[in-house]
Amino acid sequence: MEEKEFTRLFNKQRRKKAYDYHSKKNKLLLFNNVFRLIVIVMFFYFNLEVKFFQYINQDLYVSLQLFFYVLMVVFIYQTFNNILEFFTLYQLRKKYNLTAQSSEEWLQERVKSFFLTLILTFLFSLLFLILTNSFPNNWWLIISLILSGFVVLLNYLLPVVFLPMFYSLQSYPEGELKDRLMSTFNKLDLEIEDIYEINLSSKMTSANAAVIGMGNTRKILLSDNLADRFSADEIEAVLCHEIGHHVNNDIYKNLLLQPFIITITAFIVNLSWPSLINLFGYQSINPIVSIPLLLIFWGLLYSVFTPLQLYLSRIYEKRADQFAFEIIEDPMDLGRAFAKLADDSLARLEYYWWEKLYKASHPSIKARIYKADEYKNKE
Predict the structure, then answer these.
(1) Per 3-state DSSP, what percentage of the chain is helix, strand, and coil (rounded to 5)?
(2) Do the Cβ atoms of 96 and 344 come closer than 8 Å?
(3) Quick one: DSSP state of residue 361?
(4) What is the pLDDT of residue 79?
(5) How far apart are CA 152 and CA 134, in angstroms?
(6) CB 3.0-4.6 Å disulfide test: which of 18, 78, 108, 192 passes with 346?
(7) Phi–psi pair at 223, nearest 5 degrees
(8) pLDDT at 259
(9) Is 376 in contact with 331 (CB distance < 8 Å)?
(10) What is the pLDDT, as a whole number, of residue 191?
């Protein structure tokens, strides 16, 4: 494919907007991260974790003390973070018409996220305190096993418990298009309960598709705004890509990596924790006070594996693309769908090196379209 032919797939005005959008977005991301870092440093410098704990009634059961402490810390952090996000990234997305949410809808979603974060953070913190107290030498191994099982459970429950809290799912509308899509499964001799439509247009102006869940909760999702701009051929091509993830069992492959990452993270925390407790002067203080440090340190260690997870994700995406190329009549139907998705979401067509390390879960749009053209010319 020549560069001119590639360029013609895109809307010039959308490409210009994409360049402007990402230029501003990267600056805001840098500002937000630096601001967060300063706040975290100040939090520990002024011993706010200790001062917050002093507001907790010391006569309460330990689990209640922990709950109210986590509630206080999570509430303050989430409030600060949401204010920061609202006046930076949300306003930017609003300016470029990438979000369909009003301020009230955006806030409601953040409130739901707050309660989920609170519950999960409390459970993790309680588990850590119980295990480090009861099994001081082997807590890291036990917590690794429990968290690994919990990750599997979360993936299983995602389509039936967590996703419906933010989106509505329904059977894809009956009609000629659905009949054609369902016939694709028959041609591939695949049994699937249904195709589901997710109301993505309630949150964003761009379209998308996904495979989520495990076993009998696994669902193939197509957004409700796909049919607005995409042809039947392009929607079928997108569906075939998602079928590729289904056939290749990519969800299970991702899950197999999690116990490895969790165990190494827990082991390093185990080795480092006595020194960190000493460094921050927590030896003679209630261990609940150390929870903010634990959350930050655990998160930093876990993020070290982000490049590996993204690299593997890009491999899975390439294989799902290849699966689709081999099934659909014209591989460029998927290439054209990628171009439209990129224009709708103002996505970049290529990545900087640091984006590949810490952001890119998919191959670049340019690479995927060139690969589609390559497959087409093989035929």
Answers:
(1) 75, 5, 20
(2) no
(3) S
(4) 97
(5) 25
(6) 18
(7) -70, 155
(8) 96
(9) yes
(10) 83
- Location of structure tokens 């306003």: 91
Contact between residue 365 and residue 6 where contact means Cβ atoms under 8 Å apart: no
CA of 197: how far to CAs of 73, 185, 208, in Å? Answer: 37, 17, 11
Cα separation, 262 vs 353, whole angstroms:
26
Q: Which residue has the tokens 């030896």?
A: 283
Structure-token match 């299970």, residue found: 252
Identify whether the C-beta of residue 270 lies closer than 8 Å to the C-beta of residue 140. yes
CB 89 within 8 A of CB 25: yes
| Pairwise CA distance, residues 51 & 283, whole Å | 16
- pLDDT the model gives residue 379: 60
Across the chain, the runs of DSSP E, i.e. the strands, are 169-171, 195-198, 209-212, 219-223
Q: 140 is written with which tokens?
A: 């890291």
Distance separating alpha carbons of residues 276 and 297, to the nearest angstrom: 10
Determine phi and psi for 198, rounding to 5 degrees.
-110, 135
Three-state DSSP at 54 gives: coil
Segment (H or E) for 279: helix 250-279
Predicted pLDDT at 126: 98
Check if the beta carbon of residue 215 is closer than 8 Å to that of residue 155. no
Cβ burial of 45 (10 Å; 0-12, 13-18, 19+) is exposed
**pLDDT < 50 regions, the chain:** none
Tokens of 226: 């796909």
Q: What is the pLDDT of residue 347?
A: 96
Residues 226, 230, 234, CA angle at the centre, nearest 5°?
105
Q: Which tokens is 13 given? A: 């005005």
Helices 291-303 & 103-134, crossing angle to 10 degrees? Answer: 100
Over the stretch 225-244, which tens digit does the pLDDT of each residue have?
A: 998 889 999 999 999 999 99
Question: Is the CB of residue 226 less than 8 Å from the CB of residue 209?
Answer: yes
pLDDT confidence of residue 233: 96
Summary count for the chain: helices (H), strands (E) = 16, 4
What's the chain's average pLDDT? 95
CA distance linking residue 123 with residue 117, whole number of Å: 10
